[in-house]
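ERR on first pass: missing label on line 2. Operator R.T. fixed the label and resubmitted. Corrected input:
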Amino acid sequence: MLLADFGTSYCKFRELSESAGHPYLIATKDLPKNLRVDLATGHNGKRFSDRYVNELTALARGGEELIAAPDYVLLDCGSRDIKYVSYRHGKLADMGWNSECGASMGFTIELLEKYYNLDYDTLAVPDRTFSITCGVLGMSHIFDAVTSGISEAEAVARFVKGIALNAYRFSGSPQTLYLSGGLCDNPLFVSSFPCNIIPLGRYVLIKGLEKTARELLSIAL
Amino acid sequence: MKQENPFAQLRPDSRVGIVGIPPLAVIGRLNSLGARIHDLDEPQVNTDMEVTAPFLPRVYCAILRTAVLNALHLELDMIVIDVGPGKCDCALHVSTVLQDVLRIPVIRTRNEDDVPFGHPLCETRMSLLEKLQRITAGVQSAAPYQPEKFPPCKPTAAFWGVPPRDFSLLTHFPDTTHIYGWTRCMENKTPADGELEEIFNADVPTIFFAQSFCAKTALAKFLAAKHPRGLFLDVDVTCSSSTQAKIQAFLELSGVDHASR
Ligand code: SF4
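pass 2 clean. output:
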């Protein structure tokens, strides 16, 4: 049974029947044309499967699989949107999905690293930040800052910190935040949050699909 | 000085637009005159909302922007707009705009009806969409209900709020969804009953809905925070796919049985 999380920039897969099979990644632009999967989530997922689980459900189910604490907030920062689920006493308490104001944040962060030839592993968290609610609008802050003499690296770091702060507030400003998505691998982004971060990586939604798949299989048996 | 009767000029078949819920006496009068009532709060014309931009800010309640859009396009003989405690200040200001823009009488009312008609549809088993359609259509009639036709069901979820501008968000709920908030007041024909509006059922997962830019967003958010399994939701003109997904996920993750949807 092939599970897939179809993201805007990257797609994540896992073959459920292979017990040793690890999840893997394919860039969205390199997806095979006639690909079909058994269970899908994510932006575009409906195009590749007859069985679709919506992204918030997959995120929440993934959190239920990976997080032992009864109270937590899990935030997923994707290429084009941010979403979170919050659990209290082991039950869903709140959720949010920001595809308008959170637009293109992850995508822009990746783009800027390449454009300015930077390495997020080496950038320090800046003291100051830009007030940012959207990746696209945030870019103009960078250009203005660079024009005023601030280094490109500093301007981009302020931008990344602004995005982290925005995502933190969006998810309700918790003391501890479980983080999902490719940005878990970006040390500058992770360190820019003003709270304790527990990164869970890129495959949280796939974990959620695994839970759904197991339920579906047990119904079918 | 004796007040002129604004309804004297109406003939049978006159087209009267209503905004909000005018008092029952007014609805009864319109019915007895044989007027054709058009609910301007609901989408009636297939025209871009942008047409209302010269008259209302874009950041304004979508229901009232819809009412203005309808008023500009339907050939009406009169508009009755409720601006009392059962509606809102936004409607009051819209009435000023309509009085200025249109050449037909725009009559303001203040509905403070307090005789409860009951709310059988709010608690019966039926698709939420159909329940809302019936409740909103019920505004045009002053006839008493036949509650025996709509027996109550055991709820598995609840919808709190006003009838949304975009009814598509209602399609995700199970048939066993009970209705609370202003929509319940609406069926009860007591739109200004603030106490009834604040009631919710803490035992079932509930979506607390309000139109974006409406003062009721504060009450919806407040009540959602009090509810053990409540989700606050505000939507502007149309319900985006991420909002639809949010409703689906909330119901699913709150254990609302798929089979009953
Ligand atoms: S939704 Fe709110 S602002 Fe809009 S008409 Fe109703 S009460 Fe007024």
